[in-house]
What we know:
Blueprint: H1 10-60, H2 62-72, E1 75-78, H3 79-84, E2 93-94, E3 99-100, E4 106-111, E5 117-121, E6 139-142, E7 161-165, E8 169-170
Antiparallel strand pairs: 1-4, 2-3, 4-5, 6-7, 7-8
Amino acid sequence: MKLKRDGFTLAEVLAIIVVLGVLLTVSLTSIFTLMESSKEKSYENLVLMLEQSAELYVFRDRQAIESVINTTGVYEITLEELINEEMLKSDLIDPRTNEPLDLSKRVLVMKDANNLLIYCFEDNECPEPYIPLDTTPPIITMLGDNPVYISLGDTYIDAGATAIDDIDGDIT
């Protein structure tokens, strides 16, 4: 004959608590992982928006900006400039920290080895600017007579020269 009981043994209660604890731990870990992943994805979307805003900014004056890039290797646009040009809203928040973004942060614009413009938010790992080797010497043009004849004892006044480089422009 079986005895009927009205409850759980201590071992059964402890087993249930352990199982619930494991389930809760796994669930919370999954929730926190999902939250962190969501924050990172939101940050990636923010960076993409910043870089696309910089691309629009460059489009408005591409020739002048490319001239700077050709000379220095990089053009820097602050978030504040993008806001002032109405390319971004002013209340930018870093989704990873829920803190406002520092508006002095920059989007770097540079060229890659294929001469294509690339955009990189400075908080991320940006590549080194690609600066093509300048192998063409500048063209130096002497001003004044050539040859110059001066009598012994006369004062020589140099007529000067100009130097034009294909990348750096006038380097006189």
